[in-house]
């Protein structure tokens, strides 16, 4: 559907129905997967409503229709590809149609992917080398490939600090084994014939934020 497509004339002229208006319209972003989510209006206690989604970059005058979410019955819309300029701010907005009535638009707060996306923990692989463990860490990747067709790591966009903790299963005691920028960590001095659990997280110093473990 063309971005120039318009809603039926009644959508523009009919009085707004506040109780139909979508609630809590906001972006939820993880690893630059940018999903617009909302909740039904306060008067919608049954099925049968559909939703229309538009988006735009901050500063643009014209809203664009998200074709895949134009008349959707879902309560979310994937705008990852439409918000792929990670340093630019965006808006999304949603309108409800139900039983021949239409709500006003509900707009998100300003959303900038680089500032607001949350990172998953690093992928962790551990290999035993005699009485030590060699731990390999890998940052999450972007949801799309670069111009050369390759996956792109979050390390290309943030300064990342890795934190590795080791837990002795016998003592149930946690100890920090490493904190730094290296993705390969050797943990030495382990007790033979003992079990250990390796836990890792990512810290983003500039944002003061850390991933789940």
Automatic annotation (TrEMBL):
Q: Which PANTHER family match?
A: INTERFERON/INTERLEUKIN RECEPTOR, INTERLEUKIN-22 RECEPTOR SUBUNIT ALPHA-2
Q: Which domain of life is it from?
A: Eukaryota
Q: Which GO terms describe its cellular component?
A: extracellular region; plasma membrane
Where in or outside the cell? Secreted
Cross-referenced InterPro entries, in alphabetical order?
FN3_dom, FN3_sf, Ig-like_fold, Interferon/interleukin_rcp_dom, Type-II_Cytokine-TF_Rcpt
Main localization of the protein described in the UniProt heading: secreted
Q: What is the role of this chain?
A: Receptor for IL22. Binds to IL22, prevents interaction with the functional IL-22R complex and blocks the activity of IL22 (in vitro). May play an important role as an IL22 antagonist in the regulation of inflammatory responses.
The UniProt keywords, alphabetically, are:
Disulfide bond, Receptor, Repeat, Secreted, Signal
In this protein, which residues make up the domain named Fibronectin type-III?
Answer: 21-120
Family stated for the protein in its record: Belongs to the type II cytokine receptor family.
Q: Which SUPFAM superfamilies match?
A: Fibronectin type III
Task: From the Swiss-Prot or TrEMBL record, give the protein name.
Answer: Interleukin-22 receptor subunit alpha-2
Instruction: Show the GO MF annotations.
Output: cytokine receptor activity
Q: Provide the organism lineage as a comma list.
A: Eukaryota, Metazoa, Chordata, Craniata, Vertebrata
């Amino acid at each position: 559907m063309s971005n120039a497509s318009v809603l039926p004339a009644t959508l523009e002229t009919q009085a707004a129905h506040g109780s139909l208006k979508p609630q809590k319209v906001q972006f939820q972003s993880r690893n630059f997967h940018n999903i617009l989510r909302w909740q039904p209006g306060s008067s919608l206690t049954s099925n049968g409503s559909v939703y229309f989604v538009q988006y735009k970059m901050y500063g643009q005058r014209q809203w664009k229709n998200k074709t895949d979410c134009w008349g959707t019955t879902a309560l979310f819309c994937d705008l990852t590809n439409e918000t792929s300029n990670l340093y630019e701010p965006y808006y999304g907005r949603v309108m409800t149609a139900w039983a021949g009535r239409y709500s006003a638009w509900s707009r998100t707060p300003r959303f900038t992917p680089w500032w607001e996306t949350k990172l998953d923990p690093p992928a962790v692989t551990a290999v035993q080398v005699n009485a030590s463990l060699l731990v390999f860490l890998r940052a999450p990747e972007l949801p799309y490939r670069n111009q050369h067709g390759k996956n792109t790591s979050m390390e290309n966009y943030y300064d990342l600090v890795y934190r590795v903790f080791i837990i002795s299963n016998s003592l149930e005691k946690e100890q920090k084994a490493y904190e730094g920028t290296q993705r390969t960590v050797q943990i030495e001095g382990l007790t033979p014939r003992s079990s250990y659990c390796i836990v890792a997280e990512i810290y983003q110093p500039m944002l003061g934020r850390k991933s789940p473990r």
